Each structure stands twice: as structure tokens, then as C-alpha cells.
Here is the input.
Amino acid sequence: MKVIRSTPARFGRTDKTRMRKQAAELLDRLRRLGGGADGSVTRPVYTPAWNAAMTELERWFRALGLEVWVNAVGSRFGRLRGRNPQVILAGSHVDSVRQGGAYDGTLGVVMAACAVGWLAERCGQPTLTLEVLANCEEESSRFPGNFWGTRALLGAISPGEADRLVDEHGTTIGQAMRECGLDPDRIPEAARSDLVAFVEPHIEQGPVLEAAGASIGIVDRVVGVRQLHVSFVGETGHAGTVPVTRRRDALIGAAELVLAARQLAVQAGTPAVVTVGRLLVSPGGANQIPGVASLSLDLRHTDVEVLERMEGDLRDKAGAIATHHSLVVTTERRLDQPPIECHPTIRRLLEDTATELGHAWTRMPSGAGHDAQLIATRCPSGLLFVPSKNGWSHRPEEETELAHIVAGIEVLAGTLYNLAYNSAWLAA
Amino acid sequence: MKVIRSTPARFGRTDKTRMRKQAAELLDRLRRLGGGADGSVTRPVYTPAWNAAMTELERWFRALGLEVWVNAVGSRFGRLRGRNPQVILAGSHVDSVRQGGAYDGTLGVVMAACAVGWLAERCGQPTLTLEVLANCEEESSRFPGNFWGTRALLGAISPGEADRLVDEHGTTIGQAMRECGLDPDRIPEAARSDLVAFVEPHIEQGPVLEAAGASIGIVDRVVGVRQLHVSFVGETGHAGTVPVTRRRDALIGAAELVLAARQLAVQAGTPAVVTVGRLLVSPGGANQIPGVASLSLDLRHTDVEVLERMEGDLRDKAGAIATHHSLVVTTERRLDQPPIECHPTIRRLLEDTATELGHAWTRMPSGAGHDAQLIATRCPSGLLFVPSKNGWSHRPEEETELAHIVAGIEVLAGTLYNLAYNSAWLAA
Here is the structure.
């Protein structure tokens, strides 16, 4: 598929000032919905804060001249109808993790709305239909939903799932939907067959763009993720009465694996990362030798073969450690997300537009999962990153400078212009 | 003080058979009081199970011809009155940890009662008074009591403490006492000024005697214990988006300290032990870089200078690790129990008696804390260990072979004979 490019719409000084103001104001309004005194945002799906944010977005989509509609799972869409019903979708998710920040997900919705609103005003009706997506759920912070909003779009929610997924209070996601006036029996109606492209603007959530001095990151691949649960079993005992050399201390095995995992990632080099985020010791008393120590291993790489090799190396290492310390080890794979390649047409459009507009950009992998990686299985999809201050995300201090946000909106608007106002790329 | 020894009373075949039967029967009755289906015993102080065990012991003390009395905190005593009111005390505690075994504490009471009962029958009235102690509390498993029963004996419970110590349900130890018919206002009356010696029989709780093929362990010193709380603070972040070399992962620091602590104990050699029993990671998600990792360090040694050096080395090591990984470390001392020397007179009496009776015994330190270490500050005290099968303690599988138990009773009876029937050692 060849990229056909028309001149992207460039922002003038007035546009930039307006975008700055518009984006800042909406971010500020949204951060109050689910906002804490420490600047944090807690907005799990189907909660009052989430409802309020969705209502705020509906109001704003209308003010931008977009048609608002709601799908069966409560995702909101702001539509700029084209001459053709095929849809170019842009946006991200509205839910947040607990004690998260104001930018993850939300900023992508804001940027997409600013871009589509600007195109509506400046360029009139497009050839293909443009839609802003305010996705209902991505973070799995209330329900173990695993891309609930996106799976609804793809028709990939299985029958009965609404009654099975429960939050920490035992509320099913179906009940939570009903409390928001949504009917879980209608979930299948959320499935789309009219999508032809998706572009997701999002904060980077890491320190790479800031370190590179770039305003824009254009994602070539989303890393594959494997999560393992490793459990070492030794023998507990009294901290005072069992000589050190006679112990089968499970935590010794776990500590060695934590260090081996880091070493493996350093040796493998970028973009390999390995993280032990969870480590539980049992029985857990200060004067008790650990009988069981279990830990999570999160492995990421853009290349599935490297991922496979890393997993094998870590399993071998865990086995060798266990043998050396007379422990029993069990290793269980809990997650296996394959790496995803962003669509070359969308990626090249984003890159060429960023270059033409004169913004500093860099091509990079995404180390985090995003809605785009699932939607990419249905239609050409791309991911555009803007910098995260200090690389911070999922915390109250999340921030992206307005200059970067406006640059991102301009690149997004140019890219959507090329996708929606000139449909020749579709036939190419 | 010179040890003056009279011939100890030796057990005949009939005595051994009777002791075996008596000890086995009482252990079996007591293990049902607070016993679980898995063989575990859960008998925290001032619970119905504890009350029932104390009632059972009272009945049995009476059957052995001992006078029963109860002190203000509910400890039970079985007295064999001598011509002299000064008291030789022997016994241990009746409370257990949760999901513990049938031997820790309890066996010491059983052994002391068997020994004193046998002396009463065979040797008549002693010169000094003999008392069996069924101490109310040692394990701190319900209240953070820190040797509640023994501190009552020593007059070391501070005013108001009964209203301050609470269990996990918010019940104060004073309320719990009242529910057992005890008056917390009378706690000071439990203080003793008539004790002249204490011998505590106890399970070893470790694998040393079993490995040495000995029936008896005679404790020379109780280790000193220091507990530190170490906290590494780095920076949390997304497991996918922060390159490994740019992280400040708190768990890396904690894992290095866990391994360094073990190495330090191995290098220091017996009786040094260091244990990391507790390790907590925050925020704790599988896809979150640990921002905080805190751990407990439990250090034990019989020599306070070595203990001091070990603590210093570990603090230095924690600092060096923190510097190397750009973490902040804080180290706080949570416990400092000095080592205690068992009284040489009691120790030599135990050793000489064991030798004369032909039992395989070994001199050893105690790595666990015991009532004897506090009572030793008041009067000459000694500790006699019998083997723990597989070194197990604080678990349902706790067990000591009856042959070892009978050997222990015989050594204890001989030692108490030397202490109580011939008071010359007191004047020596």
C-alpha cells in the first residue's frame, strides 16, 4: 500500500493559541471529575466520576459541532459525517487507574477532539467519516476487563462475560453498566464493521521522548508482553533456631531471580525490559524463615523470538536457583500478548506529517499496551506519543507540556486530513 | 559459687514406663484443648482453649499431690512445700502460637510436673519449696505482650499496660483477663520475691540435637536479638515504558540486601543467624516498577560485640546498595534484646546430672527467646532442651520422641533434687 499525501493543514499562530487554551481548559475540567486533593485522578469505569467525565465530553463534542452518540458499553463518539460512511477513528480511553494522573487516556481524547473540531471548522465535510473515540475502559482498574471498551468495538466480548467479571466489592460489570443506564444484553450491538483506520494519541508514559528532546513519538511496534508467576517453596522455621546453612529459605531463591531478571534485561538491551513488580513472602513474620516466596515476572520485547528466548532463560535460571538452594519452583505463564506492528501507511503518514510541520519526532516502540494494539487486528492503526514529564505515568504528577500537546494535535489533524479528506490511500 | 552435688535420684524401669505413660497422656489431653483437625494447636492466652488447658493442669497437679494456686495474671503453680519458703521454680508456658504444635511450652510444663510429682513421691518433703510453673503467656500471639506472664512474676508490668495492650479485635488484655475471672488491678500481686532458682525445660525448636544424636541440650547462653526495619525508596513507574538502566527499582536494592545478609551470617559462622522474614513491595502490581521495598532483618548472636558488628556491617551494606542504585534507604532498629548467660551453677548441675545418668547431651546456645532469659535477671536460671523432630516448631508437626522426654524428665528431677533437697549450694 502506497502512501498518498495531500498537503496537511498547518496551524497558524491563532490556531495554536486557541488549541492551547481549549486543551488546557478541557484537561482541567476533566481532572476535577474523579480528582483528589493531591492532584490524582481516580476514575474507574462505570463510577459517578466516570459518568460525569463522559457527560462533560458529550457537551464538548456538541460544542465542536460533532454528532454525539453512545454505544452499548457506554463509549462516546463525536462524529463528523463524511460523504462516505466508512469511519476514521481517533481517540483513547476516559477511565483511569486509581490514584493516577490527568493525562493517561484522557489527553488522547482531548487531542483527537481538538483535531477533529479544527478540521470540521477549517476543512468542512470530509470524504470519509471522522469519529472521536472516548473509550469507556482500558485500564482494568475496576474489573479484570482486559480492554473491555475495545473488545466491545471488535465484537470480542464473550456471552455471559458481563455476569462473570466482578470488581472488588463483588459487583458484576453487567450490574455496573445497568447503574449507568446501559443494557449488558445489548453489548453485541457495539461491534463495528465500518472502521477503516484508527489513530490513538497518548502520553508516552516513559522518559524516552523527553531525553531525546522530541515533541512526538511515532510508534512502529507495540511490545509483546509475557507475565510469569514464579513460586519458590522451601521450608519455614524459627529465625533463631535453624542454622543458616541448614535452611531452605524461599526468599533467597526469589532474591536471586530478581537480580538475574534485571541482568538478563540489561544484557538483552533496549527494548527488552523485565520487571518484578510483585513479591510475596509467607508466612511473613520477622522471626520466621520464609517457606514460600512468589513473584511476578513481566517480560517485554518487540520481537517474539527474543521474548521466547528471554522466557526460556528465566525459566532455566529459576530452575537452577531452586536446585542450588534445595527449593521447589513452579513457573506459570499468566499473560501472553504478542507484539503488534503498527500499520505502515498510518505510521508513514504520521512521520511525514510531523516532518513537514517541522516537529522533532522519533520512531519508537511502545512498551505499554494500548487500545490501538487490539484495533490494529481489525483495521490499519497507528499510535502517536507526546512526552511524559520525567517519564511519569499512573501517578498524580503525570504531565505533558502544552507546547507538545499542540504539536501533537497539529500532527494528528494533518494525518486525519490525509486519511479522511482524501480516500485514495484506501484503494491504494 | 561452688556446685555441691548429692547423688541424683535415678529412674528405674518402672519409673521410666510410668513417666512415658504419664507424659504421653497429658500431652495428648492438652493437645485437644485448642487443637485443630490438622494436629495444630491454637491456644492464645485468655481464650476458652487456654482456660480449659489451665483447668486440666490444675486437676493434674492436684493428682500428683501438689498444692495448686493461681497468681493474679492466671499462671498456675503446683507447689511441693519445703521446710524453707524459698522457691525452686520449674516449668514453661501454656499458651501457643496460632496453628502451632503440641510441644512448644506445654512440654516444659508436663516435664516439670512429672519431675516434681516423682520427687514428691520418692523423696518426700524437700528443704526448699518446689513449684511447677504453668506460665500464662510467652508467645505474644494474641497481644503484643512481650513475656506478659514472666513480667508479672518479676513485677515488670507497667501501670495501665493492661488497658493499652489490645488484640486484633480491639479487646484489651485487661478485658480478656476479666473474662477469665482475673482482676487486672491485682497484677502487682503476682510479683515474686521468693524465687531462688528457675529451670525451664523446652523443646529445642531447631535441628541441632537431632543432628548431634543427643537427647538433651543444656543452654549456656540465649542469643541476643536485634531486629531492623530497612526501607528502600526508589521510583515507581510503568513496567513497559521505563528502560531498565533508567530505573530506580527499590526491589533491586532489597534483593541485594537479602543476599548480603545471608552471606554475612554464613561468613560469621555459628551461632550467627540473619533472617529476612518479611519483605513488602509497593505499589505491588505485576506491571509496576517497585517504588518502595521494605524488609525486616533479624540478627542473632550470643556475643553482643559480634551482634554490634553485624548490625554495623548490614547498615553499611544497605547504604552502599542504595548509593549504587540511586535509592534512598532508611534503617530503624525495632528490637534489641541483649544476650543472656545461663547461671553456671544451674548449667553445671544440669550437665553433671546428665553425665551421671548416662544421657547423650550437648552444650548449646538458644537461638529463640524464652521465659528463662528474663527470670535469669532475678535468680539463677537454666534451660534444658529436648530434641525437635526435623527441627520443626511453631507448626502442627512439632514432635519430640518419648524416649527423649523421659531422659529430660530424669535429668530435670536429678537437678531439682540437687537444688531443693540440699540447699547448701545457696549458701556456697
Notes: Chain B has a mean pLDDT of 95. Chain B has two domains: 13-222+340-427, 224-337. Chain B touches chain A through 63 residues (CB under 8 Å). DSSP finds 13 helices and 16 strands in chain B.
